[in-house]
Amino acid sequence: MQMQKVKAALLSLLFLLVFLSVPPIRPVDAVPSTFLVTRVFYSSDDAEVYEGHSNICYGSIPVMRIYYLNSMRLRSFVRFDLSSIPPGSVIDSATLNLFMAKAPSQSRKITCLRVKEPWNESTIAWSNSPSTVAYESIETGVSSNVWLSYRVG
Fold it and tell me: Can you tell me the distance from the alpha carbon of 122 to that of 45, in angstroms, rounded to the nearest whole number?
């Protein structure tokens, strides 16, 4: 019985020594969580402007077109509502995907432009088009019913 008490005391002492020799646990600085999220955004507004009819608004046309017609340029404007992106988010990349239903007979270079000023779908025309800056140009190819992708961010 005496021997068991000695063993118990030694075990308690050993436990106490081990416990005291372990460095205290320090809290680790919190590192913000990082999530990789892919989101798809559909246009909230779009409109065409035609150099040949510089004061007419084509905001109600159901398709987006870009081409030359009678040596005059036709451009499409598109806007996306990005308000659902949380504040402080870091955008790693952004791609604009456009479906080309009818390809030209010869491949053409088409440039995606970033709009630098506000515009309104119901009032935009060639004559009041906002200023732009080029993002990226791509070749269309000559195949119809294909997706064209622009790196825009």
Answer: 9
The CA distance from 79 to 85, in Å, is 15
Cα gap 118→129, rounded to integer Å: 9
Tokens standing for 119?
């515009």
The amino acid at residue 124 is I
d(CA 22, CA 9): 20
- pLDDT tens digits along 92-140: 888 989 899 999 999 999 899 999 999 999 999 999 999 999 988 999 9
What pLDDT does residue 14 have? 35
Q: Return the pLDDT at 3.
A: 47
pTM equals 0.70
